[in-house]
Amino acid sequence: MLKEHAATAAHAERVKKISHAVKSFSEQGIAFRIYHGSSNSTRAASRQEVVDISKLKNVISIDTTNKTAVVEPGIAMDDLMRYLRPYNLIPAVVPDFPGITAGGAFAGTAAESSSFRYGYFDRTVVSVEIVLGNGEIVQASPAHNADLFFGSVGALGTLGITTQLEVQLIDCGRYVEVNYIPVHSHSQALQMFEQAEDNVDFIDAIMFSNRHGVVVEGRLVEKLGAQPVTRFTRAKDPWFFTHVHKKIRCGPATDTFHCLTCHWTQHSRTYRQDSTIMSELVPVEDFVIRYDRGVFWMAAYGWAPNLWNRFTRFFLNFMFHTRFQYRVVHLVGGMPHIVQDFAIPEHKADVFLHYLHNDFNIYSLWLCPIKHDARAPMHTAQTCTEHTRYLVNIGVWGSPNYGSDYLHGDNYDQFVENNRKLEDKVANVRGLKWLYACNYYQETEFWRNYDKERYDELRTQWKADRLPNIWQKIRRSQQDLRLVAFGQWLMALLILPD
Ligand SMILES: Cc1cc2nc3c(=O)[nH]c(=O)nc-3n(C[C@H](O)[C@H](O)[C@H](O)COP(=O)(O)OP(=O)(O)OC[C@H]3O[C@@H](n4cnc5c(N)ncnc54)[C@H](O)[C@@H]3O)c2cc1C
């Protein structure tokens, strides 16, 4: 108890300093941004006056009865999980990358394969403490200052600085029992999301082509059964996506079919020939960040298959974690292929996937169902009708037609054009983009997707005028990487792991 009091008092002291800094900027009429020490957004950061909140990365208290944790916003998911381990608890939604912070996940958009049950990470936040644009410290929750609470979700900090969050936790055993279910079309994967049984705790899918994919179902379990245990976090472990790929049967490439993962792994001949469900146990900590090594599959891009093998993966392991990869992206200012996440209403997901296949042919694709809740005006869920039960998060990270990135293939104009086509199509199916990525909208196009009037009202009401608005934060498209100076590339390649 004493420890908790001390943590609360130390937190109050840190927040007081932040509040003073904000108040001082506000009184001098200086616009400012927030610095929290890391970012999983891929947009380049802009230079402006900053309020440094990087010291806010502590756990303040754990309530094991109500299963909640009071945390500061800068706590990263892996640190929070480590802290919770002795209590056999985990956050109800653990966004996939270990470096994602509680504050970034609330102010940005974050989800994972437990989101079919709990919704986005923000829906597992019970209450928040926010420093407003004038330095005032307020509390908000779905029951108290609800407009500020929901308004802040997905608003990228443009209504104020989140300085504390109470996060919902769930019980967990030591393992996740994972079932790998082969599917033969996008529709089949979508159907399986709809039919997920009540005892399923996690569900998502990887589509390796329009004909081959795997739905991954997980159940939290207490005891070690007879199944084998597989891990994904150590240098000697497999990357999750190649491990999943071995669960399906891929035929040889033809004019109309090609599996990029077969090409990389050079393993297609040895794949299993049947379509039965395979099961194994994965330690909880390995399961929830299973996509970290390899950044799903993006860290394999650019490697010649014969150089990307178990030895290079082992010895260069430090380079393949998301934290390292993000540092490179931030140093060079972008990525040479399309990197976008879309939230598409369930009844339009098939249409959108067909469009993606016909017009882009980008694989692999990540599919993840997310429970629908439209209470946050700046959120990816707000364009859906009330009948939408869930959204499908579609992760589109690659180059069209199995092509190489635009540094070697299509030109940069084509790359921009492709991103704009996707933005158009998403609006067409009443879905929304996740705003961590680069954006190519014109301002009027962007605001067509959101309720600007309501958002501006909220900003006035909650004194956010000194903070940039969401359009000002997201409007950057990425630079043409061919113009990046050689020294910048070199520095990016030479940076050492944390
Ligand atoms: C290839 C790829 C795959 C991805 N896959 C997933 C995925 O599977 N699941 C998932 O959840 N996400 C995924 N993301 C997106 C990413 O997780 C989100 O963008 C997330 O919001 C980033 O969290 P962060 O802590 O790094 O926040 P940041 O990027 O640092 O912050 C996000 C925004 O919130 C603001 N902010 C941060 N902290 C605060 C605060 N305390 N108060 C006010 N505002 C604040 C920042 O200014 C910024 O505008 C993916 C991204 C990429 C590139």
TrEMBL record:
Membrane topology per record: Single-pass membrane protein
Top EC group: oxidoreductase
EC number: 1.3.1.72
One matching Pfam family: FAD_binding_4
Keyword Membrane: yes
Species whose genome carries this gene: Setomelanomma holmii
Keyword flag ATP-binding: no
Superkingdom: Eukaryota
GO BP field: steroid metabolic process
Xref: Gene3D superfamilies: 3.30.465.10
FAD-binding PCMH-type domain boundaries: 2-172
Subcellular location: Membrane
InterPro entries, per the entry: Diminuto-like, FAD-bd_PCMH, FAD-bd_PCMH-like_sf, FAD-bd_PCMH_sub2, Oxid_FAD_bind_N
Alphabetic keyword roster: Membrane, Oxidoreductase, Transmembrane, Transmembrane helix
GO (cellular component) term, any one: membrane
UniProt main location, coarse: membrane
The protein, known as: Delta(24)-sterol reductase
Example GO molecular function: Delta24-sterol reductase activity
